[in-house]
Write a structure and sequence with these properties.
5 helices, nucleic acid binding, 111 residues, mainly alpha, HNH endonuclease, endonuclease, hydrolase, endonuclease activity, binds zinc ion, DNA Binding (I), subunit A
Length: 111
């Protein structure tokens, strides 16, 4: 299910009103960034989405989140109904150089 306005409000609270990438206040100008990009099969659901400035979202582009970003996301989402999309855990557990294949495998198991 795509992100609802209620989900977005909760995300804003969990992120302390800050952009996921730069940590600056984001206010009402937040965009939805898909941690695993939709271009690579990332789901359009709250468990794969964070709030970010448009410029930070664009700068991230189609890369995968790095380990620090994943750890931060997991900490923010702990005990939240918004959840964590399982392929993100598979990505965190992947060996260096195996990230894309780990993500692709995990996504295929989601379908
Ligand atoms: Zn930002």
């Amino acid at each position: 299910m795509p992100v609802t306005p209620d989900d977005a409000k909760l995300m804003d609270v969990l992120q302390g009103g800050r952009c996921f990438y730069c940590g600056e206040l984001v206010g009402g100008k937040a965009t939805f960034d898909h941690l695993i990009p939709q271009a690579y099969g990332g789901a359009d659901i709250p468990a794969n989405v964070v709030l970010a400035h448009r410029r930070c979202n664009q700068r991230k582009g189609d890369r995968l989140p790095n380990p620090d970003e994943l750890d931060r996301f997991f900490a923010e989402r702990r005990a939240s109904r918004l959840g964590i999309w399982p392929p993100l855990r598979a990505l965190r557990a992947a060996e260096e150089g195996q990230e894309w294949i780990a993500v692709a495998r995990a996504i295929s198991q989601e379908k």
